[in-house]
Each structure stands twice: as C-alpha cells, then as structure tokens.
Amino acid sequence: MGGPEIDKLIGLLAKLPGMGPRSARRAALKLLQQPESRMLPLAAALADAARAVRPCHLCGNLDSRDPCSICSDMERDRSVICVVESVGDLWALERGSLHHGLYHVLGGTLSALGGVGPEDLNVAPLMSRMAGGGVSEVILALPATVDGASTAHWLTDRLRPFGVNVTKVAQGVPIGGALDVLDDGTLAAALRARRPS
Q1: Is residue 16 part of a domain?
Q2: 14: which DSSP letter?
Q3: Going by fewer Cβ within 10 Å, which terminus of the chain is more open, N or C?
Q4: Number of domains composing the chain
Q5: For residue 82, what are the domain limits?
Q6: What's the whole-model pTM score?
Q7: 37 and 84 in a common domain
C-alpha cells in the first residue's frame, strides 16, 4: 500500500482487541493524515505508559503507582475484597462505581483444557492478604463459565480456613433481557438466584 512503515503500523493495530485488518487500516489512515495532532501524542502516551505502568504487588491492578491508587485509597472498605479474572473486569466495576472495597486480580481462571493450573494464577498474594487478617468478605466476581465456576469452587475451598464470608455475584436475566432469547444455563442460574420481589 504505502511502504513497510505503514504495513507495520497496520499490522500492529490489527493485533489490538476489536481491530481487524480493515479497522486497523482506517485507524492508521486517520493517524497518518494528522501526525502532529494524533500520531505523535499517541506515540508519546504509549511510551509513557510502557515506562510507568506496572502491576500492583498487592492486587494485580495496572497503575503507575505501587501499591495502586485503589489499594492506597484509605477511604475504601478494606474488609471486603472482590476477586476478578482480569484488570478489565476491575476497571468495569470501577467505571460503574459498583464496589467500594478492594480488589484482587487472578490473571485468568483454572482451565484443564487450556493448561492453566493454580500455579498460573495470582493466588499467593491473595492468601497473604487473607493471612494478614481484617478481611470479612471475599466476593468472587468470576465469569459465568465452566472455568469460572471451577475457579470459584477451588478458591472457596482455599478461603474457608480463614473464616471469611465467601460470596459470588448473581447471575441470570439481564436488565432488558427477554427470556425467550436466553440460553438454558442463564435461565437456570436466574431461577436458582431468585429472591423475594
């Protein structure tokens, strides 16, 4: 199209989630049409983030501070830890201001087929936090998949000796969802999680 530099740019953009080759070409074109106002600031921001952002040693969140801004916030309820699969899940909960306690990022879920075992997850820091005391509840906000369920079960067994209340997020019918379009697993979960109206 326009030389190896453009091909490389498109190839790298196409590797981003949600970006296929066509979207990558459109994004590259927009960047290249205004390099001073779009491309150079983006390149600087990418370089800054690559230098400064690291995983928090306590929870696994990505931040330029360690401990991260969430773990450092003394206004948060330190007695409740919400365990999530990924940093993206943590950010989603934070975006909605849905959780006012602390977090712990596992970095995946157990998967026999995928070859992911307990040693591949960020579990040791969670157990250290539990041993430190002061935690009364652990919320398991893991995906509603077989791997998520097996990870939740495995973690519940590991957390039981600490005497904390282990809860999991409810699953079922989404707001605005119609029953006739939901899969059997979602319907079953919704019926099991029913509560008084």
Answers
A1: yes
A2: H
A3: C
A4: 2
A5: 78-168
A6: 0.84
A7: no
